[in-house]
TrEMBL record:
<dbReference type="InterPro" id="IPR011006">
    <property type="entry name" value="CheY-like_superfamily"/>
</dbReference>
<feature type="modified residue" description="4-aspartylphosphate">
    <location>
        <position position="94"/>
    </location>
</feature>
<feature type="domain" description="Response regulatory">
    <location>
        <begin position="39"/>
        <end position="163"/>
    </location>
</feature>
<keyword id="KW-0597">Phosphoprotein</keyword>
<dbReference type="Pfam" id="PF00563">
    <property type="entry name" value="EAL"/>
</dbReference>
<dbReference type="InterPro" id="IPR000160">
    <property type="entry name" value="GGDEF_dom"/>
</dbReference>
<feature type="domain" description="EAL">
    <location>
        <begin position="496"/>
        <end position="749"/>
    </location>
</feature>
<dbReference type="InterPro" id="IPR001789">
    <property type="entry name" value="Sig_transdc_resp-reg_receiver"/>
</dbReference>
<dbReference type="Pfam" id="PF00990">
    <property type="entry name" value="GGDEF"/>
</dbReference>
<dbReference type="InterPro" id="IPR001633">
    <property type="entry name" value="EAL_dom"/>
</dbReference>
<dbReference type="InterPro" id="IPR021800">
    <property type="entry name" value="DUF3369"/>
</dbReference>
<dbReference type="InterPro" id="IPR050706">
    <property type="entry name" value="Cyclic-di-GMP_PDE-like"/>
</dbReference>
<protein>
    <submittedName>
        <fullName>Diguanylate cyclase</fullName>
    </submittedName>
</protein>
<feature type="domain" description="GGDEF">
    <location>
        <begin position="360"/>
        <end position="487"/>
    </location>
</feature>
<dbReference type="Pfam" id="PF11849">
    <property type="entry name" value="DUF3369"/>
</dbReference>
<dbReference type="InterPro" id="IPR029787">
    <property type="entry name" value="Nucleotide_cyclase"/>
</dbReference>
<dbReference type="InterPro" id="IPR043128">
    <property type="entry name" value="Rev_trsase/Diguanyl_cyclase"/>
</dbReference>
């Protein structure tokens, strides 16, 4: 039998399409394999070619799958239809259609624009002259080239089978590669953030994506019995598509017997089940909570997909093993184990949630148990734990579910809830009655810091920080009180933070400098010493008072580097004055408590003296009275090392602290320095009583006395008459830069 078409009659008369070289009738070997058909696109402007090709391949199966034909009749129609298609296995493409190169132009469109690299293209032509075979195969990405005259049915089938086999192999390799990559990504995507139900829903999604089917399935878990004796019940914990209404149902309540039996089969036998229209997969880790996933299938799975699913199920078994561990870790990460309350991280998350939802009139309150650390030291940590548990129970019972209760730190509770429930006085009343601890009653008070959530709040962490600022204010002013955070507090904190940043930059950019204030002997007016004073001029020329930036330097730790720089600079300047033979007896340098506690402090002093060449006797370290009382053993050791080095010690701002006289008697100090506040009292009605006492104390302890803040002749005369040996102040000489100081020294002759 011959299949002949008379297309393009004006241009060709011998355009035989098919010549049947097989007298046997094509057998009817099509069968219901359940696999999707191969998509074959026929692109030709001759209807007879379409009909003849379809007739020649009717009821044909290749690799156990039927064929599905797609027909287009022109280049334009093909360009319009093909972008909406997928999984086209083979294209039988005519070369000459609207134009003599229309087919070749479609090859470029298919490969370059559609990027169908797997699809096999068989070029067919009745006019080889328009596209010579060698040129076409060399210049275009085609897989076979046939003239229509040589395409008998058997040869067409042979070419098509070879093309489909090639396409299938390419797709199998690619599917394996993509599937394994997807398995890796799928396993990584299970973060378990929301527990077993979120995990189960993710399994449905990932299986559907892996097999290329819609997520019309449900996932089930083996539930645990309440008492550990009765038979466990299987429940649906995630569902999708048409099975959404089965969520949380018992498997035995599922009306569809196919689904019910498949799930029971898999969960009891612990093995997967593949059927013609569905599959049920089994996942199990080392624990006793297996999962089964039922998925509807519009077609039977290929072998490669089954292998991929086996790998996927194995991976998910490991993930399932980790789920319980992750849940435990999350519980530890977001929950306080002693009080079974949410912790700081969870509290911040809850504030973020409330801010996002825009819940009106919400307040964050922090409750700090007063003197809790001291109570722990005296009564023991077990007693402290019991007290915290008692407080947590009362707060939870009295405030109710509308208030979110958390443990922020050791003895600080966090509250988040409506403003009307978190009034300061009502919170303090919760502590009015004693707390029962074993057989005793314990009364405590709390300090409270509060902040109202406001529109435009940046987040939970910032809200908690604002409440902490208010709490610190309460504890620093009066324990047992409360403070409500205001914008002004925030402004002050931000200004301090900004100032601290600028201080670091100023130090790095050498914007800090030293000035020197002279000290004289009051009885003779002799120039006896200098005090090195640090100053900071900002970029805009304004002077920042030391009382503002020195505490920040101490708080941030910058004072260590800053103090070392002051020490070296002052020593080098003093050494320079001695070379010019205009130096006083000593150079005074202030030392903070933070510096003094550094292990290498004495070594820092020694190196500054060695590098500058200054004799130790020319250096006097001024240490505040509060430093002398902070850790006597350490202080005495450091002082002994410094005295052995040869430097002198002055107790600065004397009289402002509460030094023990017996302790002062033991200190290897050389000088007491009267604070300017007591010198100013000379002008007051009360008179200089404290200044006189300090002068007399210095005489009794055999210590020299120097007064600071002398700003008038009256101050000078009175202190000299009272027996104060030395003094400094604006009346004698203001703090000066090096050049100005040199002029001051020269002016004294």
């Amino acid at each position: 039998m011959q299949f002949i078409t008379g297309g393009k009659m004006a241009e060709q008369e011998d355009d035989t399409l098919f010549i049947d070289d097989d007298d046997d009738k094509q057998p009817d070997n099509a069968h219901a394999s359940g696999l999707p058909p191969w998509k074959i696109a026929i692109v030709d402007d001759d209807e007879d070619v379409h009909r003849s090709t379809r007739f020649a391949l009717q009821q044909t199966t290749i690799l156990n799958r039927p064929l599905e034909f797609i027909h287009t009749y022109s280049k334009a129609e093909t360009r319009q239809l093909f972008p909406s298609l997928n999984d086209v296995a083979v294209i039988l493409l005519d070369v000459v259609m609207e134009t003599e190169h229309a087919g070749l132009e479609l090859v470029s469109f298919i490969r370059d624009e559609l990027r169908w690299s797997d699809t096999r293209i068989i070029l067919r032509t009745g006019q080889p002259g328009y596209a010579p075979e060698e040129d076409a195969i060399r210049d275009f990405d085609i897989n076979d080239y046939k003239t229509k005259s040589e395409l008998t049915r058997k040869k067409l089938l042979t070419s098509l089978t070879a093309a489909i086999r090639s396409y299938d192999q390419i797709r199998t390799i690619d599917a394996s590669r993509r599937g394994l990559h997807q398995i890796i990504e799928s396993s990584a995507s299970f973060t378990f953030d929301h527990g077993i139900q979120a995990f189960a829903a993710g399994v449905i999604t990932q299986i559907s994506a892996l097999c290329g089917v819609p997520p019309e399935g449900l996932l089930c878990a083996q539930g645990e019995s309440a008492d550990g004796v009765h038979e466990q019940q299987f429940n649906v914990i995630a569902s999708a598509g048409q099975y959404r209404d089965l969520m949380h149902k018992s498997i035995t309540d599922i009306s569809n017997p196919v689904i019910r039996d498949a799930l029971l089969h898999v969960l009891t036998r612990r093995e997967p089940l593949y059927q013609e229209k569905n599959m049920t997969l089994f996942f199990s880790g080392r624990g006793n909570r297996p999962l089964a996933a039922y998925i509807d299938l519009p077609f039977a799975l290929s072998e490669i997909n089954r292998h991929l699913l086996e790998v996927f199920c194995s991976n998910l078994g490991v993930c399932l093993d980790n789920l319980n561990l992750v849940s435990q870790l999350k519980n530890h990460a977001y929950r306080d184990q002693l009080l079974s309350l949410p912790n700081r991280l969870r509290f911040i998350e809850q504030i973020d949630t409330v801010l996002k939802e825009g819940t009106a009139a919400q307040v964050v309150a922090l409750l700090d148990i007063d003197d809790f650390a001291e109570m722990n030291d005296v009564l023991g940590h077990h007693y402290g734990d019991l007290l915290l548990q008692s407080i947590a129970r009362r707060l939870g019972n009295e405030l109710g579910e509308q208030v979110f209760l958390a443990r922020i730190s050791g003895d600080v509770f966090g509250l988040l809830g409506p403003a009307e429930l978190l009034q300061p006085e009502s919170l303090r009343q919760l502590f009015a009655q004693p707390f029962p601890i074993e057989e005793t009653q314990h009364t405590v008070t709390c300090s409270i810091g509060m902040v109202s959530l406001y529109e435009g709040s940046t987040g939970g962490a910032d809200m908690l920080k604002d409440a902490s600022i208010a709490l610190k204010r309460s504890k620093s002013t009066q324990r047992g009180s409360y403070t409500v955070f205001t914008r002004q507090m925030g402004t002050e904190i931000r200004e301090r933070a900004t100032l601290m940043q600028h201080l670091h930059k100023a130090f790095d950019a050498e914007r800090l400098f030293l000035m020197y204030q002279p000290q004289i002997e009051l009885s003779t007016g002799q120039f006896t010493g200098l005090e090195a004073l640090i100053r900071w001029r900002s970029d805009n020329g304004a002077m920042i008072p030391p009382v503002e930036f020195i505490p920040l330097a101490e708080y941030s730790g910058l004072i260590v580097s800053l103090g070392a720089w002051v020490m070296r600079t002052a020593c080098f300047f003093m050494a320079s004055l001695k070379k010019q033979q205009c130096a006083p007896k000593r150079m005074g340098v202030n030392v903070s408590a933070v510096q003094f506690r550094q292990d290498d402090f004495v070594a820092t002093v020694r190196k500054a003296l060695q590098d500058s060449g200054l004799e130790p006797a020319c250096l006097e370290l001024e240490i505040t009275e509060s430093v002398t009382m902070a850790g006597s053993a350490l202080f005495e050791q450091r002082l002994a090392e410094l005295k052995q080095l040869g430097v002198s010690i002055a107790i600065d701002d004397f009289g402002t602290g509460f030094s023990s006289l017996s302790y002062l008697d033991k200190l290897p100090a050389d000088r007491l320095k009267i604070d300017r506040a007591f010198v100013t009292q000379i002008d007051s009605a009360a008179g200089p009583r404290i200044a006189e006492l300090i002068i007399q104390l210095g005489k009794k302890l055999n210590l020299a006395v120097i007064a600071e803040g002398i700003e008038s002749q009256k101050h000078w005369d009175y202190l000299r008459a009272a027996g104060c040996q030395e003094g400094q102040g604006y009346f004698i000489g203001m703090p000066m830069l090096e050049n100005d100081l040199m002029q001051w020294i020269a002016s004294r002759g």
